[in-house]
Amino acid sequence: MSRDADDLGRFGLGLKTSSFSQCRRLTVCTKALGVPVATRIWDLDHVAQSRQWQLLRTMDRDAELACQRLGSLGSGTVVIWQNVDRLVGGFRVDNDRDQRFFLEKAETVRDHLAISFHRMIGPRLNLKLLLNDREVQPWDPFFTYHPATQKLAATALSCRGEVVQVEPYVLPHHSKLTVQEQQAGRGPRGWNAHQGFYVYRNRRLLVAGDWLGLGLTKDEHHKLARIRVDVPTALDHSWGIDVTKSKATPPSELRAELRRIAERTREAAKRVFTHRGASLAPRNDSEREFLWERLAKHDRTFFRLNRRHPLIQHVRSSSESRSSFDALIRMIEATVPLPLIAVDSYERPDQLAAPFEQVPDSEVREVMLQMFKALIASGYGGTQAVDRLRTIWPFELFPSLLASLVGMVDP
Length: 411
Fold this sequence. Notes:
This protein starts with 13 loop residues before the first helix and ends in a 7-residue tail after the last helix. 20% of the residues are buried. The chain has helices at 14-20, 44-50, 61-66, 85-88, 96-116, 179-186, 252-274, 310-318, 322-334, 338-347, 361-377, 382-389, 399-404, and strands at residues 25-31, 38-43, 76-82, 130-131, 134-135, 150-151, 155-159, 162-170, 196-201, 204-210, 225-231, 292-297, 300-305. 34% of the residues lie in helices and 18% in strands. The strands form 4 sheets. Strands 6, 7, 8, 9, 10 and 11 form a 6-stranded mixed beta sheet that branches. Strands 2-1-3 form a 3-stranded antiparallel beta sheet. The chain has a two-stranded antiparallel ribbon with strand order 4-5. The protein has 3 domains: 14-129, no CATH class; 150-274, Ribosomal Protein S5, domain 2 (2-Layer Sandwich); 292-408, no CATH class. It is an alpha+beta fold.
């Protein structure tokens, strides 16, 4: 049987099964225009006692109080959970620890609603969700509102007579985000955990950040890659969408194309992460200079200072003891705290500072000035030195400071 494209339901079991996973008494009161309120109750304790699946119609006093407003409305529905044994069984309302636990669980529910229904709620949409009388604010995993977000080319994939829409996004590097935006971007599970595909069925999120078994791993370099996939309801079976609506598996005919899209998005995300999301020099400029080099030898990875870097060359050539300078460089390279960096990158990626982050402009300019002098000493003209500085990481992040050097160049 064909179903409407905007049909959210399918099995008719979701409300009941999800409710009984948390409570023992479920009450539903609903009212349509011009029709009296209808009430139906499933009570598992009554079922156990009577040994019959009897659907009750009489509410107790607490449920009646919760449904009072419904009678004054034109239409609406109230769902009530009572005897919530799975969540707060044995808890006491006058116990501070029990109260904190309950409120923490409530915030977990808020996060889930903000993610799962973010394309349905918000100031520009008609639907509002309230939790403890506070409106749930949508969580946009793609940062579509941010000017530094990259939206890559969308793709329409044909599958069994239906169309699956795929839209890849690369989020901004955290150096381009405020503290509040960084916190929002990490979501409830963190930046790394939220990379990957986001699978939607009729705008409802089913999978929030997963590489869908395509042989790709979650790592730091690709944490800014997020891909939206809209699956039509007609493909529920093909994508393995069951009654829980919490997982999805792409059909075999789409896996190769989805992996290609994922790899392209991951590569773009890696470039943003590696280059800190900024580039004043042309992308094809082969002379961009970095202070550190990554080397691989005998299945081992090493990091060493770039001996060709203008500042290193200048300081070494002007050093009274080149052997001492070389020894210092080797000591720095040999003692880079790679394990600590790896742990911090994995556990607290949002807290890693960008180059010269929170450093006064005066200090950055002084470093830039020393580099400028090193380039002049090596034979560059003033204008050439400024142009060269634009290709040296991380000075390209500070265009206004680079502009301040223009007054020092040759007339």
